[in-house]
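Exercise 3.2. Students should predict the tertiary structure of the chain below and write it as structure tokens, then compare their answer with the key that follows.

Predict this chain's 3D structure.
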Amino acid sequence: QVQLVESGGGLVQAGGSLRLSCAASGRTFSRYVVGWFRQAPGKEREFVAAITWRGGSTYYADSVKGRFTISRDNAKNTGYLQMNSLKPEDTAVYYCAAREGSDNYYYPTRYDYWGQGTQVTVSS
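Answer key:
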């Protein structure tokens, strides 16, 4: 089992930045792919970014590419999502997720462990 806890959400003006953290406990965090997803009211949960277990490969949704950066520190059992140039359409609950394996990073159903989510609100 892996337990995930997100933090760092909040209210920010358009153009601003936030850094989300995902603290993991339980089984060896470094073995897992870490993904970030988000869900806005009335919408399905959507993929934001993913990073492989060694951090060698990263993947991004087109909507955040160039603005968001995913990273991880396995020594601290923590994943991060740096969000810059935020837009009102980025407003959502952001979830951290973890899984083993090495494909299909974009699908939430492929992730085994989830955090409780953290709210990000971007005002115009």
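Discussion points: Residues 9 and 120 are 5 Å apart (CA to CA). The longest strand covers residues 18-26.
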